[in-house]
Design goal:
199 residues, 2 helices, six-stranded antiparallel sheet
Length: 199
């Protein structure tokens, strides 16, 4: 009986020693780590995205037009003639090149844009802009831009706005059942170009 008591006592001491060692190896309890993870998650969720990914879509008659782009902010910078140089090709957004898709043929200033998906680029200037539809729609920025892939170019006169448009924005506006316009606004510049939906 005495031997059993000593064996029992030895087991209790051994068990306490194991628990003590475990505590030394992992001083922070499990719920503390979980809390830290939650804080990190909460911090991550409130982090502001500087150039959010967004889209503009509209139905004009039977034409479904979709513009996919990332929307950078001005953030107290000079945009046109500064961040975006005059006379240089710009992907008309941030990150990946902006793209436009239409399920119907569209006519811009007498030029036909066949139904399909296109990279959308611009060449901003002080007095006029060049609008470019390019067959290579899936590219990062303007890294892979090649003029030989252009399918349509337009010259546009920009409008100077009174108020600053903080984030780049595209709009597709319906004029009537077969006509509409696409506009781009950012900083104090707005460009707009009308189109006709072809039957």
């Amino acid at each position: 009986m005495k031997n059993l008591f000593y064996i029992f006592l030895a087991l209790i001491l051994f068990s306490c020693k194991e628990n003590k060692n475990t505590d030394l190896k992992d001083p922070a309890p499990a719920h503390s780590n979980h809390k830290d993870n939650m804080i990190e998650s909460e911090k991550g969720s409130v982090k502001k995205i500087l150039s959010p990914h967004t889209a503009a879509m509209a139905m004009i008659g039977e034409a479904h037009i979709h513009i996919d782009y990332s929307s950078p902010g001005v953030r107290d910078r000079i945009i046109f003639g500064g961040l975006v140089g005059y006379g240089q090709v710009w992907q008309a957004g941030a990150h990946k090149a902006t793209w436009i898709e239409t399920n119907k043929d569209l006519e811009f200033d007498g030029q036909l844009l066949k139904a399909g998906k296109y990279g959308f680029f611009t060449i901003p200037g002080k007095s006029d802009w060049t609008i470019i539809f390019n067959s290579n729609w899936d590219q990062h920025g303007k890294d892979e831009y090649d003029e030989k892939d252009d399918v349509l170019r337009l010259k546009i006169i920009p409008e100077v706005m009174d108020d600053v448009k903080e984030h780049l924005e595209y709009q597709i506006t319906k004029t009537n059942l077969t006509e509409g316009s696409i506009s781009l606004s950012w900083e104090k510049v707005r460009i707009s170009f009308p189109f006709v939906v072809k039957p």
